[in-house]
């Protein structure tokens, strides 16, 4: 009925079907059809011929006055709804789950977002288990920015970027003076090897089963911070994202880059599929995915 009333009002304002059809950019037959719908609904004619033009009938005059009121109410409703949406954006804080080791890499984007949307409060949640934290703490976390090596049917994940992973060793490790290494050489490693990324484990398995024997350690953790601490304590070496060296205070650690193939992890923006995406969340997602396009590979 909204479209029919819109056409009806335009005909009244223009004084003819021809001018109204040009203004609405629809054909005259289509416009006439809209008026026939109205007349069928109210069971009365709304226009009558008046020379070369048209004139409202008594019923048409009543409908015109009511239609103007209806359209005004619709316009007010749209305005109030938009204001409510903006108010919701201003009032709702946004909770982002991210590892303390990843946060420095993306902080420039968070700062830029705050400049563009100062009313939205960003609350950072310390997470170490990526998407698992979102599944278990979904009432407190809106978005997770992390790797997601294992697909989960409850989550929606969007690619952000890929990041090189490298071998982290203590400064006095026998390999500390090396700058590069092949994956195959890991089979000669005498230290325990800590790996938190399941995709890296699969890569090692694909090369040589013996390579992952050092994974059979008495110590294990999915926390990158704990793994770095274990390397600092000379309990072993680790394969981790290369940026973690720059975002940590572990100055006594050395990074050895891998030759072909170069292990990498994929960072994603993750939300729950059953989550209500409010205005603040949608605004951040649109901004972040566009802003980080320069990182995507």
From TrEMBL:
UniProt key word Membrane: no
GO cellular component: cytosol
Keywords: DNA-binding, Transcription, Transcription regulation
InterPro entries per the UniProt record, alphabetical: HTH-type_LysR_regulators, LysR_HTH_N, LysR_subst-bd, WH-like_DNA-bd_sf, WH_DNA-bd_sf
Pfam families (alphabetical): HTH_1, LysR_substrate
Residues covered by the HTH lysR-type domain: 1-57
GO MF annotation, one: DNA-binding transcription factor activity
Family per similarity comment: Belongs to the LysR transcriptional regulatory family.
Gene3D superfamilies named among the record's database cross-references: 3.40.190.290, Winged helix-like DNA-binding domain superfamily/Winged helix DNA-binding domain
Name of the protein this chain belongs to: LysR family transcriptional regulator
């Amino acid at each position: 009925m909204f479209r029919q009333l819109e056409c009806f009002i335009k005909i009244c304002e223009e004084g003819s079907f021809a001018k109204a059809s040009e203004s609405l950019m629809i054909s005259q037959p289509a416009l006439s059809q809209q008026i026939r719908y109205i007349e069928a609904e109210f069971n009365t004619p709304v226009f009558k011929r008046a020379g070369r033009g048209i004139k409202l009938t008594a019923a048409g005059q009543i409908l015109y006055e009511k239609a103007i009121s209806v359209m005004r109410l619709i316009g007010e409703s749209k305005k109030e709804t938009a204001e409510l949406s903006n108010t919701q954006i201003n009032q709702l804080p946004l909770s982002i789950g991210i590892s303390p080791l990843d946060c420095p890499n993306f902080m420039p984007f968070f700062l830029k977002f705050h400049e563009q949307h100062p009313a939205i409060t960003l609350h950072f949640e310390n997470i170490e288990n990526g998407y698992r934290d979102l599944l278990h703490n979904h009432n407190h976390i809106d978005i997770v920015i992390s790797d997601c090596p294992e697909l989960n049917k409850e989550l929606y994940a969007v690619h952000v970027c890929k990041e090189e992973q490298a071998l982290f060793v203590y400064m006095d490790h026998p390999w500390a003076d090396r700058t590069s290494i092949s994956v195959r050489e890991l089979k000669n490693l005498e230290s325990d090897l800590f790996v938190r990324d399941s995709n890296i484990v699969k890569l090692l398995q694909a090369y040589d089963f013996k390579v992952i024997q050092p994974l059979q350690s008495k110590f294990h953790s999915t926390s990158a911070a704990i793994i770095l601490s274990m390397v600092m304590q000379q309990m072993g070496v680790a394969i981790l994202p290369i940026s973690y060296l720059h975002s940590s205070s572990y100055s006594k650690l050395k990074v050895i880059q891998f030759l072909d193939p170069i292990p990498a992890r994929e960072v994603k923006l993750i939300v729950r599929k059953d989550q209500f995406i409010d205005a603040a969340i949608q605004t951040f997602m649109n901004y972040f995915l566009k802003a980080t396009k320069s990182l995507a590979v």
